[in-house]
Each structure stands twice: as C-alpha cells, then as structure tokens.
C-alpha cells in the first residue's frame, strides 16, 4: 500500500486540478479523527457524536474542522484524518487513481420533493435581461476550481439547456458570493441555506433547482483512506454504523417530522452557525436541510456519471475505473 505524506498529496491534488453494516465493536474505544465542515449537511457525524452513537460503536471520535473540501481530502490521504464527507472532484478522483483514498458510502443527495441546491443568476445580469438559465448562454458561470462539483453541476445544466458557459474559477465560496453581488459573474449554483437568504435580500435570483437537471445526484460521499478501506474493515463498519444512526435521527427531525425539530436544531447549532444566536441560526439550519442517505447508501450510477464527465473533460485519467474510486463492500449501492 502506497503511503502519501501531506506534500505529496497536495501535489496529486494540484496535478488533477490542472488536468451492509456490521454490529459495533462495543468495547474497543478506538480513537479516530473525523473531518467535517460546519455545514448542516455534515450533521450525521455531529448527531452520532452528541448522542453517543459513535461511542456505542466503540469509537472515541475527535472532530477536525476544515474550511473547504480539498484540504480534507489531503488530510485523509496523508493519514491525518480517518473518515470524512466530501463532494466528488477531480482532485478526489486523482487521489483514488493513485491508491490514496476510497469512497465507501453516500451522504448528501438531491431528491425530488426535498429542497435542494439552486441555480442562480446575479441581479446585475437579471436586470440586464438574463432571466432564465437558457439566457446564460455565453456568460460567466462561477466555480471554485476546474474539476469541482460546481463545475460538474454547471456543465450538466448547460448540456441540457443546449448552451455554452464561460466557467470562471474563483477558488472560494466567499469570493463567488462577492462576485455575484458585484455582477462580475452571471450564474452559479449553491445549497439552499446560502441561496435563499441572499435571494430574498436581492443579491441574486433563484431560477432553477439542481434536481431538475441532476435527479438523484449524489452530492457528497463518505470516504476514507484506501488503507482503512482495505485493512481496517471492522473499524470502517463501526464508523458507518454510528454515522448511519446519526443520519436516521437527522431525517426523522428535519425531513420526516417524526421527531423534534427544535431539539435537533439545538444540537446542530453547537457546530453550525455558532457565531450567531440560536434564533438567527435556526432559519439557516432549516434551509440547509437536504436528504442524507439512509444507511449511507451510495448512488453508484450518479458517481459513475460524475466520473465519466470528469474523464470526458480531460480533468482525470481516462483509464480510472469506478472500482478504483469506490469500495462497494460496505453499503447498499443504487444503480451502476
């Protein structure tokens, strides 16, 4: 098994950008690090920790928080973090191609009937006559980087609309928000808790749902190092067991209405929008609610579509296979 230090892993990322759960091991008390972003969509891990589901699975969890997905992938590949959730990107696929990481389950998904990510048009473009996604033909569309999930979503929308977009990489979500507000870019897609408040304030206009163009899109995945996937099977199953119980509680409270939403908001607020008082954080937490896959089930057909698109764009090696990216032995898979 090839080992990667942090510098080597960062090199791989840069090159890519340029181009059934077991019963838990109750007494093991194994220390692991879990990577997370302070987003509602990472709540499965937060709930599993707060309600003792990781502890029940024999795990002593420490969170390591990140500002973006790419450094989290680096940390997994270099062994600094054990498990995490992130979107599929060109960088992530390259790390799998090099034998550094494996996708082992699914997390956030687009699902019809549940509020999801939005396509947006900047107010400046809208006032100038760009009223629909089709009107974005030839205009600037914001992405963090070439080979990001934003790039994939925009390209798939453009393909269905029969338009051409000028993809503009701005590196960070904050920079994209600023560019949308100032009219430097014309379109973008983002999660509802960011899209809806700023649309209400007039910063941009919501003109479509990502689910209309990418039904059942597997937005984020659970992943780990290839070494953990191959050689720490009991540990990996224990992590997925605890995580899945957290996801079940999240769905019951935030989607299905069979458990207390207020109690769940209190729990999530310990990790998300912590700089805001609870009454101001609650609407954004609610707006960020999307489907997290039960049992960490993985939509393999969606993952294959993403892999094929990255290959068609020359962003990853054309010879990498779905088996190099995904270990299907841990969870239920859909399609593929």
What can you see in these coordinates?
- This protein has 336 residues and is an alpha/beta fold.
- The chain folds into two domains: 6-111 and 217-334, Periplasmic binding protein-like II (D-Maltodextrin-Binding Protein, domain 2); 118-213, D-Maltodextrin-Binding Protein, domain 2, CATH 3.40.190.
- The protein has 16 helices and 14 strands.
- The protein has a three-stranded antiparallel β-sheet with strand order 3-11-4, sandwiched between helices. A three-stranded antiparallel β-sheet has the order 9-6-10. It has a two-stranded parallel sheet with strand order 1-2.
- Helix 1 crosses helix 4 (69-78).
- The protein starts with 5 loop residues before the first helix and ends with a strand.
- Keywords: Signal.
